[in-house]
Design brief:
single chain; alpha+beta; Aldehyde Oxidoreductase, domain 3; 34% strand; 147 residues; four-stranded mixed beta sheet
């Protein structure tokens, strides 16, 4: 299964190369890598990400299967980290492979919209002022409604 929920850092380039090397029948591979960012410009000390093992993997496997079927993918990869991450650290990655580029792009977009709004991860920002849970954003819900 091409779903990895882990605490340890990963190398997006190496992951993409390995994914591409084993993408049978692909005419296109699209990837997106998310980086922990400091939206308050210098205020974020860390992002803590929590999840329920087992439940998270099942939910990601379900959305991956939907993307595989809906976009006629030859393969799809989802990597998401949990634990404490500093600004600038890689937080997640999706990669999609399809015979044609539009399907690969659309599937990656679909997976990202799901991960931003529905994936069972809980994020808490640690700043100089304290810690706050990250609330869902209206624009993420709007993006998901496209699908």
């Amino acid at each position: 299964m091409a779903i990895h929920v882990r605490e340890a850092p990963f190398d997006p380039g190496a992951e993409l190369n390995a994914f591409t090397a084993t993408a049978p029948g692909a005419g296109a591979v699209v990837s997106f890598t998310g980086i922990t960012r400091d939206v308050a410009e210098g205020d974020l000390k860390a992002m803590e990400i929590e999840h329920y093992p087992g439940m998270t993997e099942r939910a990601l496997a379900e959305i991956r299967a939907q993307a595989m079927d809906r976009f006629a993918l030859t393969d799809a990869l989802i990597i998401h980290r949990h634990g404490r991450l500093a600004p600038g650290e890689t937080i997640m990655m999706v990669a999609t492979a399809a015979p044609h580029r539009r399907n690969a792009f659309d599937a990656a977009d679909f997976l990202m919209d799901y991960l931003k709004s529905r994936a069972p991860f809980w994020k808490r920002e640690i700043t100089e002022r304290g810690a706050d849970w990250v609330a869902a954003k209206d624009e993420d819900e709007t993006a998901l409604s496209r699908w």
